[in-house]
Design brief:
Largest sheet: 9 strands, mixed
Helix content: 25-40%
CATH architecture of the largest domain: 3-Layer(aba) Sandwich
Number of strands: 16
CATH topology of the largest domain: Rossmann fold
CATH superfamily of the largest domain: P-loop containing nucleotide triphosphate hydrolases
Strand order of the largest sheet: 2-1-3-11-16-15-12-14-13
Number of helices: 17
Strand content: 5-15%
Distance between the termini: 99 Å
Structural class: alpha/beta
Length: 534
């Protein structure tokens, strides 16, 4: 009996199916065709997306090419870009990554003034005294950076100010040079050596850590040495007698400039080892850290001892004694203006800010990797073993002292030479650790955010955020450890993203990078009115 076309096909499929083993899964013909059509549509979509990305240098490089963003592409202010990190809270995102590519070679702080302004003034053309110029020569400092060109002329006029600039931009010299110049303009104010009463400096710099105080103190000493201005550092961690010895150390008598940490300064004031009635200027460096709850109370007590109310900024006669207040930082806390308002006229502060403030550094490569917590350590060890010995120093950031200590034991097991720095160490244990790292004795430093503020890390070329930072401010400070003024190479940053709350911050960073805007929620103004009812 003859079979029709349909019957023959059915018989053929039945005969073939009868010969298949029992463990083979049969896919219906219609479903197979549907899956093939879906695969073809996805492939065509990916090819179209890849074709839409014109060749050229990238601003953001993604593991998925269709999500990479070339430099020529702009994202509107109100446009929501398609983010690589949009799906990173899902478990299938593990292993995904994206990378912000450098868009320029030099740090923004080293870029020259606008073309119509020529090369900009040199330090000598700014009117700084020859003794300070000699100190700059000893420090091998050439032309001013952007923040120095902005701040030095303004601070020489004697106004209190908020000086806000990106990390690694040269803020230390931006405030030291004009304020020391003011002390040299009135040398008659120096008391004779061995005079009665506690030491009364004319310049005071308050810093949040002993490492930063030692670093800034070394710069201040080099600047002051040709002028004969004595400089002292005041750091706690020892007996009260140690504070007195620090203040009276050296043959030059009482210090003209004092640099200290809040706890040590408060203790010296309480014990009357120190007086501030002759203070001409005060600097609050790394202001966001000084507003931490561990520093806020000592800082307020120091401000209460200084003659700030009598030295409100403004026109002054030749005999008027006034205290100039300069607040310095890359990010600023909201409570700072409320604290200062108790002691001085905050409304008359100048605001000095650079154009790159609160922006991601455009000359530093930044990579974000989505990882499981258990994969972080193998990834870190791979990075350290792949990092060449000639590739500069490495900073590894952790969010807690216990993680720093634990990781130290792990690196010991892997025979990786390193140093550790965290705030729970005793003063004796911390002494000299960062200085040894700066000298290059050891090229790997495991640390908490204690090392992310202000410290000169020009030898560092790789930063690893083993723990992703808790805030956008912390991220900016950490990434600012590479690509600094004086660095030989821009360096790179690698961040491990493990928690769901980390992803929220990464999305904000990626959005700011794609839109080429500053990071959200950061404020550089101190002149805002107090909240109603506050």
């Amino acid at each position: 009996m003859a079979l029709g076309r349909g019957g023959a096909a059915a018989a053929t499929r039945a005969a073939a199916g009868a010969q298949l083993p029992e463990n083979v899964v049969r896919v219906p013909w219609a479903l197979r065709l549907r899956l093939q059509r879906g695969t073809q549509r996805r492939r065509r979509g990916q090819e179209a997306a890849a074709a839409a990305v014109r060749p050229g240098k990238l601003l953001l490089r993604s593991r998925r090419p269709e999500l990479s963003q070339p430099r020529w592409q702009t994202v509107g202010r109100w446009e929501q870009p398609q983010l690589v990190s949009a799906g990173w809270k899902h478990r299938k995102a593990y292993g995904d990554y994206f990378q912000l590519e450098p868009s320029q070679q030099a740090a923004p702080a080293l870029q020259g003034p606008p073309p119509d302004a020529g090369q900009g003034p040199s330090f000598a053309e700014m009117g700084l005294r020859p003794a300070l110029l000699a100190g700059l020569e000893a420090l091998a400092v050439g032309r001013p950076t952007a923040v120095q060109r902005l701040a030095i002329p303004a601070l020489r006029r004697g106004r209190s100010a908020l000086c806000a600039a990106e990390t690694g931009s040269g803020k230390t010299l931006a405030y030291l040079l004009p304020l020391l110049d003011g002390l040299l303009a009135r040398p008659e104010g120096l008391p004779p050596a061995g005079s009665a009463g506690p030491p009364a400096p004319r310049g005071l710099v308050v810093l949040p850590s002993r490492e930063l105080a030692a670093q800034v103190g070394a710069v201040a000493a080099a600047l002051c040495r040709p002028a004969g201005l004595p400089v002292r550092g005041l750091m706690g961690g020892g007996a009260a007698g140690g504070l007195r010895r620090q203040l009276r150390a050296g043959p030059a008598g009482a210090p003209a400039v004092l640099l200290g940490t809040p706890g040590a300064l408060r203790e010296a004031l309480r014990r009357r080892f120190l007086a501030l009635e002759r203070l001409r200027w005060m600097v609050l460096d790394e202001a966001d850290v000084l507003m931490d709850e561990s520093f806020a109370e000592p800082l307020e007590e120091i401000l209460a001892h200084a003659p700030l109310a009598a030295g409100a900024p403004g026109p002054a006669g030749p005999d008027e004694v006034r205290t100039q207040v300069v607040v310095v930082g890359a990010t600023f806390p909201t409570g700072l203006s409320e604290m200062l308002r108790k002691f001085t006229d905050v409304g008359r502060f100048l605001t000095l800010g650079t154009q790159s403030l609160h922006r991601l550094p455009p000359h530093v490569q930044q990579k974000f990797v989505r990882l499981k917590g258990q994969d972080k350590l193998p990834e870190l060890l791979h990075l350290l073993k792949e990092h060449p010995a000639s590739g500069g120093a490495v900073l590894i950031f952790c969010n807690s002292a216990s993680t720093v200590n634990w990781m130290g034991y792990i690196l010991d097991d892997h025979k990786i030479k390193h140093l550790r720095l965290q705030g729970q160490m005793s003063a004796a244990a911390r002494a000299g650790i960062f200085a040894s790292f700066q000298k290059g004795d050891v090229s790997v430093l495991i640390c908490t955010d204690l090392a992310s503020r202000g410290l000169d890390t020009s030898s560092v070329q790789l930063v690893v955020n083993y723990d992703f930072p808790d805030t956008l401010q912390d991220y900016l400070h950490r990434v600012g450890r590479v690509g600094r003024v004086g660095s030989k190479a821009p360096g790179a940053v690698v961040s491990f993203v493990t928690h769901r709350w980390d992803v929220d911050l990464v999305r904000k960073i990626e959005t700011a990078a794609r839109k080429r805007t500053g990071l959200p929620g950061l404020d550089a103004s101190i002149n805002k009115p107090p909240p109603k009812g506050g």
